[in-house]
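new request in #modeling-help
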Amino acid sequence: MTESKKMEEKILSIRDLSISFQTALGRVDAIRGVEMDLYRGETLAIVGESGSGKSVTMKAVMGILSSNGVINSGSIDFSYYDNHEKIDVDILKLTKKHMRSHINGKHIAMIFQDPMTSLNPTMNIGAQIMEGMIWHKRANKKEAYQRALELLELVGITDAKKRMKNYPHQLSGGMRQRVVIAIALACNPDLLICDEPTTALDVTIQAKILELIKDIQKKMNISVIYITHDLGVVAKVADYVAVMYAGKIVEKGTVDEVFYDPKHPYTWGLLSAMPDLDTFDDVLYTIPGSPPNLSHKVEGDAFADRNIYALNIDHRLEPPMFKITDTHYAATWLLHEKAPKVEMPQALRDRIDRMLKEASDDGK
Amino acid sequence: MANKQPLLDVKDLKQFFRISNKFTVKAVNGVSFHIYPGETYGLVGESGSGKSTIGRSVIRLYDPTAGTINFDGVDISGKLSDTEVQHLRTNMQMIFQDPMASLNPRRKVLDIIAQGLDVHHLYQSKQEREERVYQILEKVGLSREHANRYPHQFSGGQRQRIGIARALIMNPKLIIADEAISALDVSIQAQVVNLMKEIQKETNIAFLFIAHDLSMVKYISDRIGVLHLGYLLETGTKEEIFSNPVHPYTRSLLSAIPLSNPRVEKHRTSETYDYETSGIDYAKGVSNHIDGTHYVHATPEELKKWL
């Protein structure tokens, strides 16, 4: 895995990203030093509670931060192909105008949570799919129309010719999200960002949409970033997982590492809080307390107050990222060589053992 | 279980909406189920299956087209007298999906929670009113300082607690929770669900829990009903439904839940179910008893094929 990875090309590399917002209540440090890498054709899932900064990070990548957002430091290196020529840029150094005409929609596309609000209710869906191609690729109407038909078929909409003339309100929620995916794919992006793409949809449709995105990803060799809080979705689609808490990544690794060998107490909490279909416990585990207010300066580890495993140092000094394997990192002092040995909660241990057993049974 | 009197007994409920002379939406088409005191009944199904409509018909936001709804010994499906309205509006309460949209942004939490008391004149003095709100706030895990704030000053999970407090203050026998936790974060969902369970243990309230997230429904419910296109296709205890799903729609619904086990989930594809091509006609089916409380809606031939 690690050797083959070096052969692959890095498409996105975020370094030391820090973003604040000026609000009426003072400065809020929403992102505090995020580092992230993504390789071509791979899938990264970012999980965390609301307010942990997952959407803000991705908005920074798209260059669509709200106007009160300030980027304090960091870089977002993105590489893409334009006419078979490789171009490397630092997104944070580009002007908004350049982003709009060269990057957004063309090389980085985004799918939002609610398909009703992300479509234009006054345009038929054909025109909405063609719009991007005509604008970015200077395609003529006929080419664009042909490509739009192909895209609708690709995303599994039957009777595409008739559907081209439909308006968003004439389609069901699942259909609308398929149209949004078709629009996102219209210009062959290098990177697709899906912000809670299935939260507004039913389970049955959710499964179909996720399988669709996975399928298209394989066909077109694009990289996908999922923002989600559903760990089931993560398990289904992701190669890599980054767990965010209070504007930082607290644990990252391959999906196997994070699900079967989590190291950070916050990840333990997240995994324990999720009801799985085999638990019959009386009370669901919850992480005590609530996330810190980021308008105050965070002393030490932001998670320390909610962490029953917190050490003294957690309240004073922020833990660095400790390396566990080449791909697996976690920011907790528990991994320091001098820290007392703390194991994950027994209930979680049992559940992971059960999952591993299921997985090996499944393999047979 | 059998000799206990159900708190809510819905028989053959039909709820149609006439759109035009030619077209009527049959949102709920002959659904029967019952809920015992202190029990949680989960209704699941995709959007458009009629699960929210059932909730709204039961609490009489709609006038049912046909069928009977018996609540706490009173038939509430026809025209209601004033005393029946009084009885229904105090003993049955609802919690809605979006806590931001369902709380009046211009009123203080104290007034929002006390509104039911105000409407039904259930207190003697201003002090008593406040005291009762404070008690309820503490019960749902908020403190009395929160009473003088406005909804926007709370986080999503706290807002939903206010919604629960507003329902609880009437001392209801049944609470209808319509997607009450769908808009919340996973970690917050767990907190709210725990709270609901705790309150149920304490006060013996029954819940009608409407949701599309099956793993949460399984966790909270005693019995589950699966709805599709206005028909109740399968109902039974959660063990019966999850370990022995009979109807192909139930099976596809269960297989669509993403498991949080990456190695299994990666190469698993969900079962598909398409009503139009499946050859199943819900209108022809009848309710068949499997065992215990497990019923499946099917024709005899279909049932033979599935078992």
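bot summary: The first strand of chain B starts at residue 8 and ends at 18.
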